[in-house]
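anyone seen this seq b4? input:
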Amino acid sequence: MRKGGKQKRNYIIYVKAFHNILGAMQGLRLFDHFGFNLPAKPRIGKRQTISEYELLKFDPQLFDWVTPETGALLTLYKPEPGLLAMLEGNMDRDLE
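predicted toks r here
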């Protein structure tokens, strides 16, 4: 959050802390439903199976899924420069 104007902060991602948090939460039910259950909707038609599909491969340099035969991209996603800088330079990758 920005308070009092545009101040750029140097964010750091602590992978060790994130790993510890995920390990501590493993097997715990953190979210629970509340309210009421709606009646089930009747099924209309039969399930469809997909017979024609394309195999895709994720390319980390392009940040997208690529069709190997044609080179077509799936999402055309372009990450923001601030996100790239945070992920490349400000990550404490030490798990010890």
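The chain has a mean pLDDT of 81. The first strand starts at residue 13 and ends at 14. kinda curious what u guys think
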